[in-house]
Write a structure and sequence with these properties.
The protein is an alpha+beta fold. The protein is built from 14 helices and 13 strands. The protein has a domain of 90 residues. It has a 5-stranded mixed β-sheet, sandwiched between helices. Strand 11 and strand 12 form a beta hairpin. The chain is globular and about 60 Å long.
Length: 331
Protein backbone atom coordinates (compact mmCIF):
# COMPACT_ATOMS: atom_id res chain seq x y z
CA UNK A 1 0.00 0.00 0.00
CA UNK A 2 1.12 3.57 -0.61
CA UNK A 3 -0.23 5.15 2.57
CA UNK A 4 2.34 7.07 4.62
CA UNK A 5 1.73 8.30 8.15
CA UNK A 6 3.64 10.76 10.27
CA UNK A 7 4.85 9.54 13.66
CA UNK A 8 2.03 11.49 15.34
CA UNK A 9 -0.65 9.94 13.11
CA UNK A 10 0.74 6.43 13.66
CA UNK A 11 0.71 6.92 17.45
CA UNK A 12 -2.84 8.29 17.29
CA UNK A 13 -3.87 5.19 15.35
CA UNK A 14 -2.27 2.82 17.89
CA UNK A 15 -3.60 4.75 20.91
CA UNK A 16 -7.13 4.64 19.50
CA UNK A 17 -6.85 0.90 18.85
CA UNK A 18 -5.81 0.59 22.51
CA UNK A 19 -8.95 2.50 23.64
CA UNK A 20 -6.93 5.10 25.55
CA UNK A 21 -9.25 8.03 24.84
CA UNK A 22 -11.44 8.64 27.89
CA UNK A 23 -14.63 8.56 25.81
CA UNK A 24 -13.74 5.22 24.18
CA UNK A 25 -12.53 3.22 27.19
CA UNK A 26 -14.14 -0.09 28.04
CA UNK A 27 -17.20 0.30 30.25
CA UNK A 28 -16.71 -2.99 32.08
CA UNK A 29 -13.97 -5.52 32.62
CA UNK A 30 -16.08 -8.13 30.81
CA UNK A 31 -16.10 -5.90 27.69
CA UNK A 32 -12.33 -5.42 27.95
CA UNK A 33 -11.55 -9.12 28.26
CA UNK A 34 -14.03 -10.06 25.52
CA UNK A 35 -12.13 -7.84 23.07
CA UNK A 36 -8.53 -7.96 24.29
CA UNK A 37 -8.57 -11.43 25.80
CA UNK A 38 -5.87 -10.65 28.34
CA UNK A 39 -4.50 -8.11 30.81
CA UNK A 40 -0.83 -8.16 31.66
CA UNK A 41 -1.14 -6.44 35.06
CA UNK A 42 -3.26 -4.04 37.10
CA UNK A 43 -1.12 -1.30 35.56
CA UNK A 44 -2.96 -1.76 32.25
CA UNK A 45 -6.44 -1.15 33.65
CA UNK A 46 -6.66 2.55 34.64
CA UNK A 47 -5.99 3.92 31.15
CA UNK A 48 -8.34 1.50 29.37
CA UNK A 49 -11.20 0.82 31.77
CA UNK A 50 -13.81 3.40 32.75
CA UNK A 51 -14.79 1.53 35.92
CA UNK A 52 -12.71 0.28 38.84
CA UNK A 53 -11.73 -3.31 39.51
CA UNK A 54 -8.68 -5.43 40.27
CA UNK A 55 -7.25 -8.55 38.69
CA UNK A 56 -7.41 -10.26 42.10
CA UNK A 57 -11.18 -9.74 42.09
CA UNK A 58 -11.53 -10.89 38.47
CA UNK A 59 -9.46 -13.99 39.25
CA UNK A 60 -11.82 -14.80 42.13
CA UNK A 61 -14.80 -14.37 39.77
CA UNK A 62 -13.19 -16.72 37.25
CA UNK A 63 -13.21 -14.12 34.47
CA UNK A 64 -9.47 -14.59 33.97
CA UNK A 65 -6.79 -17.04 35.07
CA UNK A 66 -3.08 -16.55 35.65
CA UNK A 67 -0.59 -17.78 33.06
CA UNK A 68 2.45 -16.77 31.02
CA UNK A 69 1.34 -14.69 28.06
CA UNK A 70 2.81 -14.08 24.64
CA UNK A 71 5.06 -12.03 24.90
CA UNK A 72 6.41 -13.97 27.85
CA UNK A 73 5.22 -12.13 30.92
CA UNK A 74 3.03 -13.29 33.77
CA UNK A 75 -0.48 -12.10 32.99
CA UNK A 76 -4.20 -12.77 33.20
CA UNK A 77 -6.11 -14.29 30.32
CA UNK A 78 -9.55 -15.43 29.23
CA UNK A 79 -9.48 -19.21 29.90
CA UNK A 80 -10.91 -19.84 26.41
CA UNK A 81 -7.69 -18.51 24.88
CA UNK A 82 -5.34 -20.72 26.87
CA UNK A 83 -5.37 -23.71 24.45
CA UNK A 84 -4.06 -21.40 21.71
CA UNK A 85 -1.17 -20.29 23.93
CA UNK A 86 -0.40 -23.91 24.78
CA UNK A 87 -0.34 -24.87 21.08
CA UNK A 88 1.90 -21.89 20.21
CA UNK A 89 4.50 -22.93 22.80
CA UNK A 90 4.39 -26.64 22.09
CA UNK A 91 7.66 -28.50 22.67
CA UNK A 92 8.40 -32.17 23.53
CA UNK A 93 7.70 -32.87 27.21
CA UNK A 94 10.31 -34.16 29.63
CA UNK A 95 9.67 -37.16 31.84
CA UNK A 96 9.21 -34.88 34.84
CA UNK A 97 6.67 -32.75 32.99
CA UNK A 98 4.69 -35.82 31.89
CA UNK A 99 4.60 -37.11 35.47
CA UNK A 100 3.37 -33.82 36.94
CA UNK A 101 0.88 -33.43 34.08
CA UNK A 102 -0.71 -36.75 35.08
CA UNK A 103 -0.93 -35.74 38.74
CA UNK A 104 -2.51 -32.37 37.92
CA UNK A 105 -4.96 -33.94 35.44
CA UNK A 106 -6.15 -36.37 38.12
CA UNK A 107 -6.31 -33.95 41.05
CA UNK A 108 -7.03 -30.51 39.53
CA UNK A 109 -7.42 -27.92 40.82
CA UNK A 110 -4.45 -28.81 43.02
CA UNK A 111 -2.56 -26.51 45.39
CA UNK A 112 1.17 -26.15 45.06
CA UNK A 113 1.56 -27.71 48.52
CA UNK A 114 -0.34 -30.84 47.50
CA UNK A 115 1.42 -31.01 44.15
CA UNK A 116 4.80 -30.84 45.89
CA UNK A 117 3.67 -33.60 48.30
CA UNK A 118 2.50 -35.93 45.52
CA UNK A 119 5.43 -35.31 43.21
CA UNK A 120 7.95 -38.18 43.03
CA UNK A 121 10.75 -35.64 42.58
CA UNK A 122 12.73 -33.40 44.91
CA UNK A 123 11.50 -29.94 45.90
CA UNK A 124 13.98 -28.29 43.53
CA UNK A 125 13.12 -30.48 40.52
CA UNK A 126 9.39 -30.16 41.14
CA UNK A 127 9.59 -26.35 41.47
CA UNK A 128 11.63 -26.07 38.26
CA UNK A 129 9.21 -28.37 36.42
CA UNK A 130 6.18 -26.35 37.54
CA UNK A 131 7.90 -23.19 36.30
CA UNK A 132 8.67 -24.82 32.93
CA UNK A 133 5.10 -26.03 32.52
CA UNK A 134 3.76 -22.58 33.42
CA UNK A 135 5.96 -20.92 30.78
CA UNK A 136 4.66 -23.45 28.25
CA UNK A 137 1.06 -22.52 29.23
CA UNK A 138 0.60 -26.24 29.86
CA UNK A 139 -0.78 -25.31 33.28
CA UNK A 140 -2.37 -22.20 34.78
CA UNK A 141 -3.49 -20.93 38.18
CA UNK A 142 -7.13 -20.29 39.10
CA UNK A 143 -8.58 -17.76 41.56
CA UNK A 144 -7.36 -19.83 44.52
CA UNK A 145 -3.83 -20.07 43.04
CA UNK A 146 -4.39 -23.78 42.47
CA UNK A 147 -2.91 -25.42 39.37
CA UNK A 148 -5.04 -26.70 36.50
CA UNK A 149 -4.17 -28.30 33.17
CA UNK A 150 -4.76 -26.28 30.01
CA UNK A 151 -6.92 -28.10 27.48
CA UNK A 152 -5.15 -29.23 24.31
CA UNK A 153 -5.96 -27.60 20.96
CA UNK A 154 -6.22 -29.07 17.48
CA UNK A 155 -4.20 -26.13 16.13
CA UNK A 156 -0.67 -26.65 14.89
CA UNK A 157 2.05 -24.49 16.40
CA UNK A 158 2.14 -22.25 13.33
CA UNK A 159 -1.67 -21.90 13.26
CA UNK A 160 -1.65 -20.93 16.94
CA UNK A 161 1.07 -18.32 16.42
CA UNK A 162 -0.92 -16.92 13.49
CA UNK A 163 -3.98 -16.61 15.72
CA UNK A 164 -1.95 -14.79 18.38
CA UNK A 165 -0.56 -12.47 15.70
CA UNK A 166 -4.16 -11.63 14.73
CA UNK A 167 -4.96 -10.83 18.36
CA UNK A 168 -2.00 -8.46 18.53
CA UNK A 169 -2.90 -6.73 15.27
CA UNK A 170 -6.45 -6.22 16.52
CA UNK A 171 -5.02 -4.75 19.73
CA UNK A 172 -2.32 -2.50 18.22
CA UNK A 173 -3.16 -2.23 14.50
CA UNK A 174 0.40 -1.74 13.28
CA UNK A 175 3.60 -3.80 13.51
CA UNK A 176 7.07 -4.09 12.05
CA UNK A 177 8.37 -7.64 11.62
CA UNK A 178 10.91 -7.07 14.41
CA UNK A 179 8.33 -5.90 16.93
CA UNK A 180 5.89 -8.68 16.07
CA UNK A 181 8.66 -11.28 16.49
CA UNK A 182 9.21 -9.91 19.98
CA UNK A 183 5.49 -10.15 20.77
CA UNK A 184 5.30 -13.71 19.41
CA UNK A 185 8.62 -14.75 20.98
CA UNK A 186 9.69 -16.57 17.83
CA UNK A 187 12.37 -16.38 15.17
CA UNK A 188 12.21 -13.77 12.43
CA UNK A 189 11.83 -16.41 9.70
CA UNK A 190 8.70 -17.76 11.39
CA UNK A 191 7.35 -14.24 11.92
CA UNK A 192 7.84 -13.29 8.28
CA UNK A 193 6.06 -16.47 7.16
CA UNK A 194 3.11 -15.62 9.39
CA UNK A 195 3.03 -12.04 8.07
CA UNK A 196 3.09 -13.32 4.49
CA UNK A 197 0.21 -15.72 5.12
CA UNK A 198 -1.89 -13.06 6.88
CA UNK A 199 -1.19 -10.75 3.96
CA UNK A 200 -2.29 -13.43 1.48
CA UNK A 201 -5.50 -13.84 3.49
CA UNK A 202 -6.14 -10.12 3.19
CA UNK A 203 -6.04 -9.63 6.97
CA UNK A 204 -3.10 -7.20 6.86
CA UNK A 205 -1.38 -5.03 4.25
CA UNK A 206 2.24 -3.88 4.08
CA UNK A 207 4.06 -0.77 3.01
CA UNK A 208 6.59 1.85 4.05
CA UNK A 209 3.93 3.30 6.30
CA UNK A 210 5.95 5.58 8.57
CA UNK A 211 7.31 8.83 7.19
CA UNK A 212 11.12 8.86 7.24
CA UNK A 213 11.34 5.21 8.33
CA UNK A 214 12.84 2.75 5.81
CA UNK A 215 11.29 -0.26 7.59
CA UNK A 216 8.33 -2.18 6.26
CA UNK A 217 5.22 -2.12 8.43
CA UNK A 218 2.02 -4.13 8.33
CA UNK A 219 -1.40 -2.80 9.37
CA UNK A 220 -4.95 -4.13 9.45
CA UNK A 221 -6.33 -4.07 5.91
CA UNK A 222 -9.72 -2.90 7.19
CA UNK A 223 -8.05 0.30 8.46
CA UNK A 224 -5.94 1.11 5.39
CA UNK A 225 -8.38 3.66 3.97
CA UNK A 226 -9.64 5.02 7.30
CA UNK A 227 -8.85 8.54 8.42
CA UNK A 228 -7.12 8.70 11.81
CA UNK A 229 -8.46 11.31 14.20
CA UNK A 230 -5.68 12.98 16.20
CA UNK A 231 -5.38 11.53 19.69
CA UNK A 232 -5.82 14.37 22.19
CA UNK A 233 -6.25 12.46 25.43
CA UNK A 234 -3.93 12.24 28.41
CA UNK A 235 -2.83 9.04 30.10
CA UNK A 236 -0.19 7.44 32.27
CA UNK A 237 1.73 4.52 30.75
CA UNK A 238 3.35 2.29 33.37
CA UNK A 239 6.25 0.01 32.48
CA UNK A 240 4.36 -3.26 33.10
CA UNK A 241 2.02 -2.56 30.20
CA UNK A 242 2.43 -4.19 26.79
CA UNK A 243 2.05 -0.78 25.15
CA UNK A 244 5.22 0.26 26.98
CA UNK A 245 6.96 -2.75 25.44
CA UNK A 246 5.52 -1.83 22.03
CA UNK A 247 6.83 1.76 22.39
CA UNK A 248 10.06 0.75 24.09
CA UNK A 249 12.42 2.23 21.49
CA UNK A 250 10.47 5.51 21.34
CA UNK A 251 10.36 5.86 25.13
CA UNK A 252 14.09 5.12 25.43
CA UNK A 253 14.84 7.70 22.74
CA UNK A 254 12.70 10.37 24.39
CA UNK A 255 13.44 9.60 28.04
CA UNK A 256 16.83 7.88 28.01
CA UNK A 257 15.60 4.59 29.49
CA UNK A 258 12.52 2.42 29.95
CA UNK A 259 10.39 4.42 32.38
CA UNK A 260 6.77 5.18 33.16
CA UNK A 261 5.57 8.04 30.96
CA UNK A 262 2.79 10.63 30.95
CA UNK A 263 1.38 11.28 27.49
CA UNK A 264 -0.55 14.35 26.40
CA UNK A 265 -1.79 13.55 22.93
CA UNK A 266 1.11 11.76 21.28
CA UNK A 267 3.80 13.66 23.20
CA UNK A 268 5.57 12.52 26.36
CA UNK A 269 5.33 15.43 28.81
CA UNK A 270 6.79 13.68 31.84
CA UNK A 271 8.43 10.47 32.96
CA UNK A 272 9.66 8.78 36.12
CA UNK A 273 10.87 5.50 37.56
CA UNK A 274 8.14 3.65 39.41
CA UNK A 275 4.41 3.16 38.96
CA UNK A 276 1.04 4.64 39.83
CA UNK A 277 -1.83 2.14 40.09
CA UNK A 278 -4.98 1.74 42.21
CA UNK A 279 -2.95 -0.35 44.67
CA UNK A 280 0.37 1.51 44.92
CA UNK A 281 2.21 4.65 43.84
CA UNK A 282 5.98 4.94 43.79
CA UNK A 283 7.97 7.60 42.02
CA UNK A 284 11.65 8.40 41.62
CA UNK A 285 13.58 10.74 39.33
CA UNK A 286 10.56 12.59 37.95
CA UNK A 287 11.26 14.78 34.93
CA UNK A 288 8.65 16.78 33.08
CA UNK A 289 6.23 19.68 33.01
CA UNK A 290 4.09 21.03 35.84
CA UNK A 291 1.06 19.64 33.98
CA UNK A 292 2.60 16.16 34.00
CA UNK A 293 3.34 16.31 37.74
CA UNK A 294 -0.19 17.55 38.47
CA UNK A 295 -1.67 14.76 36.36
CA UNK A 296 0.45 12.23 38.26
CA UNK A 297 -0.62 13.62 41.65
CA UNK A 298 -4.28 13.82 40.59
CA UNK A 299 -4.19 10.23 39.32
CA UNK A 300 -2.75 8.98 42.62
CA UNK A 301 -5.40 10.98 44.51
CA UNK A 302 -8.23 9.48 42.43
CA UNK A 303 -6.86 6.01 43.18
CA UNK A 304 -6.70 6.83 46.88
CA UNK A 305 -2.97 6.17 47.14
CA UNK A 306 -0.15 8.49 48.15
CA UNK A 307 2.97 9.01 46.08
CA UNK A 308 6.03 7.62 47.81
CA UNK A 309 9.67 7.84 46.83
CA UNK A 310 11.61 4.78 45.80
CA UNK A 311 10.71 1.92 43.47
CA UNK A 312 11.33 -1.79 43.70
CA UNK A 313 13.41 -3.68 41.19
CA UNK A 314 10.28 -5.71 40.42
CA UNK A 315 8.56 -2.56 39.17
CA UNK A 316 10.76 -2.60 36.10
CA UNK A 317 10.87 -5.99 34.37
CA UNK A 318 12.84 -5.07 31.26
CA UNK A 319 16.01 -6.81 32.48
CA UNK A 320 14.04 -9.98 33.20
CA UNK A 321 12.43 -9.74 29.77
CA UNK A 322 15.79 -9.39 28.03
CA UNK A 323 17.20 -12.33 29.98
CA UNK A 324 14.21 -14.50 29.09
CA UNK A 325 14.43 -13.55 25.41
CA UNK A 326 18.12 -14.44 25.29
CA UNK A 327 17.77 -17.75 27.11
CA UNK A 328 14.47 -18.71 25.40
CA UNK A 329 14.81 -17.58 21.75
CA UNK A 330 11.56 -19.30 20.82
CA UNK A 331 10.98 -21.25 17.61
Amino acid sequence: ITRVMTHEVALSYVFRKQKLEKTSRFGTFDELIAERGYVRSDQELPCRLAGRTSLKKQMELGTVVKSILCPSYVGYIDPARLPVLRAAKKVPLTGEQVALQKIIAAKQPISKKNLMFQSPYSYKVTTETISEMTHMSLIYQDGDSAYCLTEASDLTQEEALKQIAKWHFKDFGLFSAERLAQFLNCRMAVTRKILSELEDEGYISKGFLLEGDPSLYWMLTEDVGSKVRPFTGMFLLNTQDNLSLYLRDYIKKECGSSVSAIFSGTKIIGHFKGKVTPTAAKMDEFEGSDLARKYLEDTARIFGVSLSKGCDQADDDWEASEFYSKTNPGL
